[in-house]
Amino acid sequence: MTNSAPAPTNPQNGHPECEPLGVAAIGYAFMGKAHSNAWRNVASFFDVPALEQKMLVGRDPEQVAEAAARYGWAESATDWRQVLERDDIHIVDICAPGWMHSEIAIAALEAGKHVLVEKPLANTIAEAEAMTEAARAARARGIQSMIGFNYRRVPALALAKELIAEGRLGTVRHVRAAYLQDWLADAQAPMTWRLRKETAGSGALGDIASHAIDQIQYLTGETILEASGVLKTFVTQRPGPDGLEDVTVDDAAWATFWLTGDIGASVEASRVATGQKNSLQIEMYGTDGALTFNLESLNELRFLDATLPVREQGFRRILVNEPEHPYLEAWWPQGHIIGWEHTFTHQIRDFLTAVRNGTQPSPSFEEGLNVQRVLDAVEGSAKNNSALTPVDHKSLAMVEGA
Ligand code: SOE
Hints:
- With about 400 residues, this protein is of the alpha/beta class.
- About 30% of the residues lie in helices and about 25% in strands.
- The strands form three sheets. A nine-stranded mixed beta sheet has the order 16-15-14-13-7-12-11-8-17.
- Helix 4 (about 100-110) links the parallel strand 4 and strand 5.
- It starts with 20 loop residues before the first strand and ends with a helix.
- Bound molecules: alpha-L-sorbopyranose.
């Protein structure tokens, strides 16, 4: 920042927000790498507060040091508590496995750090509730928090949200979503933390159905009230470092939902869907139109306008790559498409904008807790022979409290 530029003021706590904002990330594997790339690039494309990548934290000292050097972090550490002691670190980005989210997030918020955390919010409802309470208390002190449902930042899905909000689908009645991967189709695929309940919370349900559930509620603006579900573990043991280990989470999940607004929805999630690599499919059907999307062609949205004469109707492919589409003015000339990693850059752009303006970024921890409650209802239903199960929102104020 130049000396002449005024430091941005945080209207909620009245203190000038320090610039550059110091950032630390916890975790350097898949998500840590994706987030690091976004922290490194965001200021090259978007107007965001000045930031510095201060510290990357991970368990293995050599690997985290190597990752820090490669991903542009000034320092590395093996204990996340070091981050809390640093006055020059203002933002903590939690990319560690789910079982670590609540302890780190609550401690960071209490230490006055803004927090971004990967989805799902936590492994249990109790943890997610404690995080949400901590986020509320911190918000009152001008400290912001956000959960990383990055697919909200796919331009085609952000456009879908705009079209639905403008009423181009009329009354939405029916939603279908599927999130299909195949990295566990091979029974010899090794054990990882993602396959243990104590570290991951659940399997395909929390890891990928959570994205579909978030999208259904985000796109429609409605809330899931009831769920019924089935969970299945097809490969019950997998090779670990010390021999075969029990898999304690689901390989696949099926759920049907009923939402406010009288919308019916279904979600399928699988990590054993042979041939499907990372296919998040969403279909929405309304009285006046329909939309379809597939993450494997993420620059495209298909839209059918049912208000046209029937003989002219048909799904149109919109190449969502024009400067007037969400986020795209910042990137390349039209038609020079973007990819999956850009969603994380958009997410950090939105998070930093909210931090600068002293406003609550979305999705909030309340929204993360809401998804957690839906996941919990699906698990409860699956244990109870797919019985229709109310989503225990406690009160809808909890959902709307962001
Ligand atoms: C990140 O958004 C994420 O949800 C990962 O955590 C999943 O494992 C991935 O496969 C989909 O994206």
